[in-house]
Amino acid sequence: MNQARQLAQFMRQWHLIDANQQDVYKLGTKVAKYLSGNWKPIWHPSTDCGDHVVVINCQDIAMEGFDWKHRQFHFNKEYPKSKVNIPAYQIHMYDPCRIVYLAVYKCLGKSNIRRSHIARLHLLPDAEVPSFLMKNVGNQLEQVQEVVKRSTEYTDEERRNFPRLVKFPEDHVVDWEAPIDNPGRHKLYNPYERKSKIQQTPTK
Amino acid sequence: MMLARCLPSGWSAIRGIATSSSAMKWKIKEAEEGDTTVVEMEKIEEPARPKNAFCTLCTCNLPIKVKYSDVLILEQFMRPDGTVLPRQLTGLCRNKQLQIERCVMQAHWSGLFPDKTIADFDRSGYKQFNRYWKDDMSMYRISEKIEQGSWYYVKRYDTKNRPWNKLMKNPLNWDPLHTHLYKKHKRKPKNITDK
Ligand SMILES: [Zn+2]
């Protein structure tokens, strides 16, 4: 088994990774490592030992916090008025694979061989993998982040077995837990507001 | 007349509940008998918090810090409409209450409570995509990151970037205004690459 694994390192291996709810740049560093063959002990910049990586569910990748809006890609054609910063979410809306491509391209480092490495990257927007790709795949890579479950994905049994943290006081009435109407935004008292209204009214 | 008769009885009822030592929860029960409405308090069997209890989150020795992804913990502190119960009811200390409120807000932003949101929760633009949070103060550490864009791109396979696909996939994005988008293109697109 070990020998087979050792021999497989001299071939082009095919890895599959699920990008669902994974951070783009954490995923990109992992994918870049496999694309360049950097994980192999035989690796050397002059050795062409990179693998193929198939990334599925590209449209479900995640970013931290408000990064979809705040991470901007700078495009400059070096013509007048051609500099533009495009936020990541606009690129992702246009093409769900482009952000992953840009992230992997960045994580491959600034070298001339990265274009030959990224040529072995296969990006698929959802979980449908065409059969001519699937027949090559021999390994599934571990995800870089946990996949968060929604509240609707938990079963009733899991919910029942979960310890109860909230203990209400003795005189608690269940109806107090009912949703209340939206009280609206709190407005600070402005003593000058009235005054200005009076001033606005014509006195003549 | 009515007020004078109601007040003392009401006060005694409240005092009665406050001094009761039995561990119970109560529920308001309304019943109509003819033209009069009878309001009663009904007991529900559930162990209550003792009077001298401290904040539950500090005393229960949780091995982890509560995060936005701990959905089963957060929904215990929530109302069915997705808002957080006040501190008088949850019995948390001030810091933990604020932490829970921040986590619930993050969970809403990540779309983890699709059954406990308001109908007009904003999910347009960048808010429609998956996002995660490093910790509960993550949303206050904001900075703009400028990346070097590149036109070098090899589009090998059909990326299927059709708006109606995205709308169908995430039920939070379903909107009657957009139905024309996925009604028009009912036919399944042919997979050209798969021969
Ligand atoms: Zn506490």
Automatic annotation (TrEMBL), chain A:
<dbReference type="GO" id="GO:0006412">
    <property type="term" value="P:translation"/>
</dbReference>
<keyword id="KW-0689">Ribosomal protein</keyword>
<keyword id="KW-0687">Ribonucleoprotein</keyword>
<protein>
    <recommendedName>
        <fullName>39S ribosomal protein L13, mitochondrial</fullName>
    </recommendedName>
</protein>
<dbReference type="GO" id="GO:0005762">
    <property type="term" value="C:mitochondrial large ribosomal subunit"/>
</dbReference>
<dbReference type="Pfam" id="PF00572">
    <property type="entry name" value="Ribosomal_L13"/>
</dbReference>
<dbReference type="InterPro" id="IPR036899">
    <property type="entry name" value="Ribosomal_uL13_sf"/>
</dbReference>
<dbReference type="GO" id="GO:0003735">
    <property type="term" value="F:structural constituent of ribosome"/>
</dbReference>
<comment type="similarity">
    <text>Belongs to the universal ribosomal protein uL13 family.</text>
</comment>
<dbReference type="InterPro" id="IPR005822">
    <property type="entry name" value="Ribosomal_uL13"/>
</dbReference>
<dbReference type="GO" id="GO:0017148">
    <property type="term" value="P:negative regulation of translation"/>
</dbReference>
<dbReference type="GO" id="GO:0003729">
    <property type="term" value="F:mRNA binding"/>
</dbReference>
Automatic annotation (TrEMBL), chain B:
<protein>
    <recommendedName>
        <fullName>28S ribosomal protein S18a, mitochondrial</fullName>
    </recommendedName>
</protein>
<dbReference type="GO" id="GO:0070181">
    <property type="term" value="F:small ribosomal subunit rRNA binding"/>
</dbReference>
<dbReference type="InterPro" id="IPR036870">
    <property type="entry name" value="Ribosomal_bS18_sf"/>
</dbReference>
<dbReference type="GO" id="GO:0005763">
    <property type="term" value="C:mitochondrial small ribosomal subunit"/>
</dbReference>
<dbReference type="GO" id="GO:0003735">
    <property type="term" value="F:structural constituent of ribosome"/>
</dbReference>
<dbReference type="Pfam" id="PF01084">
    <property type="entry name" value="Ribosomal_S18"/>
</dbReference>
<keyword id="KW-0687">Ribonucleoprotein</keyword>
<dbReference type="InterPro" id="IPR001648">
    <property type="entry name" value="Ribosomal_bS18"/>
</dbReference>
<keyword id="KW-0689">Ribosomal protein</keyword>
<dbReference type="GO" id="GO:0032543">
    <property type="term" value="P:mitochondrial translation"/>
</dbReference>
